[in-house]
Amino acid sequence: MISVDISNVWCRVSLPEVLGNEQTVAQAHQLLAGIDWKQGESYGWLTRSLAMRRDTLEQLQAAAEKLRSQSRVIVVLGSGAAYAGVRAAIRLSMGRLSPVPRLLFAGEHPSPDDWADVLTALDGVDFSVIALCETGNEIPPLIALRSLRWIMDKRYGAGMKERIVICAPAGSNAMANLAETEGYAFWSAPQETGAPKSALQPGALLTLAAAGRSADLLWQGALSQLELCDERTMENPAWMMAAAETALQKKGMRRALLCTPEPAAAELGRWWSHLITSCGCKNGGGAWADAVRMPEELPLIAESLLDPRQMQYLTMLRLQPSAKNTAVEMAWRDPDRISALTGLTLSSVSETMLDTVAETVFGANVPLIAVRCEEDLTDDKIGELLYFAEFSAALSAKTAGADPYAQAETRSLFRAIDHRLGRE
Fold this sequence. Notes:
globular; alpha/beta; 2 domains; 15 helices; Rossmann fold
């Protein structure tokens, strides 16, 4: 279960100011659900249309198992929010352990040194490729896939077709055209606005299944969270978060620091902060979010965080404490001066540090929103967390008056890059 605690925002905003946004949140939710068609496109992907047939899920899982059975390494090429969300979910579920087969994320940047490392890792190793792209026209993964196709053609011949899966929007784009022309397996993103960005679209679930996760459990978790987030009251944690953030932003607090205290959640924090920023920083609404890791980055941000002149607030993601009761070791002498911690579990040390941060920032009039995941992160719970992150980012942006999926500026930028590279 995911809960949101806004009890530490009252240092800057009042309860009536938060509750005063309830009608605006309700209207934003209605627009995201696509009910008021006069106001624009339907965003049903995150509300009414998050549905997939059982046979499709089974086909998706079977395709992932086939890739796993024939590969020691699965190269995941791509860019965008779905690609970053998948990488975050795998890191969150696997910790420091690499999945078997290993997933090698690449192709998001045309770096010659990085690509040389990828080729070295694939030398003499059986591998397959998943291209997970938001538009299907991104240059770096297309360059990477062309290079890998050349290697696979020499190594596997006609069998290379069984080792390439392309996940992109259907229609007129380079990746979809490549799949049709060459006969590669193709998984299209749903047509609803926002679906290609989602870490819960079919191509993303296929990639997660290739890492050994259960596509069915991830999906069921997302559906469960959808039902909770569709409640049209302030009891809904996404509503509560949107109302509080909008109240803070009306006071000029337009920078959010998203704190992820677990190392395994660092990628999740980066992805979530990018979601918040990409959804909200449009039309003068929303917030800019930066991911910070606790406690290692606390010295870097402490002065800024505790400076009352800085107009920012803190969002802290708190995960269920680990059941692994590793304790601080005893020592006969105390030169390191931590014997007072002897016998405490690492989880209790971490929780104490987080509690202290929360109390200190609140005492310095820095608002704090706490997002809690109160259960172990099994596949279904990860599905819940992915859905909540995506929906809450979109709802907060819409409440603040931004279009969470507007891409006009981004598209013009990439058209300029294409033009400069001679790719019309």
